[in-house]
Records
---
Amino acid sequence: MTNVIFWGKYGVTSGRVGNDHLHIYRSACVRSIKRMRKRSLIPVALLVVFGAIQLVPVSRTNPAVVTPMKWDSEETKALADRACMDCHSNQTVWPWYSYVAPVSWWIANHVNEGRDKLNFDDLTAVRREGRRKFGNVANAQGEAGEGNEAGESTGTAQGGGARAAKIADEIKEHMQHGQMPMESYLPMHPTARLTEEEKIKLIEGLSKSVAATLGQ
Ligand code: HEC
């Protein structure tokens, strides 16, 4: 028989217990200590994983501007800068959290996908998706081989005009349906939230600016 102190559900008590009881009590203690050790390893493991994923390379580039935009007005440029250019230009302002994985993967993915679909700094880029949608355009630096595919317009000013019109249509459609700017962009970029009046101005302004840039 031993005198022990219990830290139990009902506070601290003491009493005399037999060896059996003591054994059970001891092993319960050991189990709970082991459990605690295991639990305290979870944050450490998470930290290690967090550190490791930072090493995954992320494509956070700002390539050279190929087709400098011929803005129809300073206002259009300012509106586009506020709402579109981080994802649809080569002049992305990469915020600090775009350097922290896994958020960085998500942001880089949006920017790269956004640029791929529509890049105001590279309007003549002949991309698979883009070309199908916007049509080919006179483009000396078209991707090797692609411009020569049968049935493709090898490009004239007319190609540029048709392309500009298609781009303008897409912009109008996406903005009118509230798809652009992307909803997930807004909480961290509240100035990208445009009023109805600003949206109309931007749709018109972008249409003119894209046409001017593509030589129409
Ligand atoms: C946070 C990044 C982001 C912002 C900001 C953003 N876009 Fe986009 N945009 C994307 C992504 C990603 C896609 C491709 C996926 C999709 O269509 O939803 C896209 C697609 C588009 C398309 C469709 C192109 C195609 O061929 O399918 C248009 C047009 C467009 N954006 C216009 C705009 C305009 C105009 C603005 C500003 C008012 C804007 N976007 C702001 C990321 C963005």
---
Amino acid sequence: MKIAFHYLGCRLNEAENEHIARDMVEAGHQMVTLDDQPDIIVLNTCGVTGEAMRKSRKCARKLAAGGPRMLVLMGCAVDLMENGENPVDDEDVAAKSDDSVQIIRILRKDKPDASKIILSAISQFLSNQTQDLKETAKYRLRMRSFIKIEDGCNNQCTYCSVRIARGREVSYPTQQILDEINHCIALGEKEFVLTGVQVGAWKEGNRRLHDLIVDILDKTAVRRLRLSSIEPWHTRPELWQLWHDTRLCPHFHIPVQSGSDAVLTAMKRRTPIDGYLEKMAAIRAEIPHVRISTDLIVGFPGETDQMWQETLSFIRQAQFDDVHLFRFSARPGTIAADLPDQISPVTKHKRWYEAETLIADIRRQRLNAAIGQPCEVLWENICEKGVDKNCWYGYSKNYLRLNRWFDADVYMRGNVTSETFSECDIEPNIKYCVG
Ligand code: SF4
């Protein structure tokens, strides 16, 4: 059968999709895109903000309305239903779909068996078919493989619904991770991203994340390995010192969430601003051309003008290569949802705009600083619609996007070449250099 995967939100969802995709392919099914009339669509939803919930619901409705024969819904938005919210309502989805649509929901407690649940639904479906729908398959969702090494979180960040949706920390065994990577390498994958709700919380007895990375470097033939994101309290010298091995990609996404210690305390974040800046400086001193990005929440309850000014001054000091900026949205079931002094939407918008303008300036300066740097690019695809078909994009090890115009029709997907950044450009939502 033809199966398409779609996700919203974080790379953990992408990792889960890839994992299930591999199981489906091994069972003889074919991976296709949403445009290829799939028999099954797996939608991995996101519930991190109110906006993400809205998008998840909208996306589920749209996919059901397209008449796939089976729609599988999973991920945080679906899990949060257990807490009294109903973001992807069956009736809502079914109202827009024709009768042939079968909707399967996979909740957190079912997740380890997600592939089995889907395969069993497929075999039931096939038992009613006369035609053999099996096809030889090939999976590849993107150029990099997302390897889930951990799930869940034991922290108590007061704004966070992900920890509610995902539950407590669980680490996957080393051997399982090595087997998955080796399996993907045999399929031709070149780059791997270790993902989890908190990648840095991975443990196995006394072994921690840096021990796992050493094992991966020693026992597999990975060409490029990166971390999806890592909390500041898990970012330690024994970890970043491993980055002398050039297979480790010099890009760290380290969520900070606010530049004010008072706000960080109210959020129950574990690393104060000074500690965060010290780690940034140490990483930059140790790893050439490293890029550091972060997440920041604007308008947390109780954030005064002075606290906001502290955040702006922190952004100037930190000089992030990129910042994912979110406006605070109260998530049901979290402590922050019931805090006094909620910030008005107008103030949130004003602060967001102020920060975004500053961040764009710094981003451009840092991109400009990359001009002339040599880099190794893993080519992914032709550029967005409307751009010359000879224009390809790929990513450097330090996660800079590179666009390059090739002279003639070439197929670059999966190739790795040495390039030099020659100029930079920033379009809305696309930051890139040109080779
Ligand atoms: S570290 Fe904080 S923000 Fe991240 S998942 Fe855990 S509770 Fe949520």
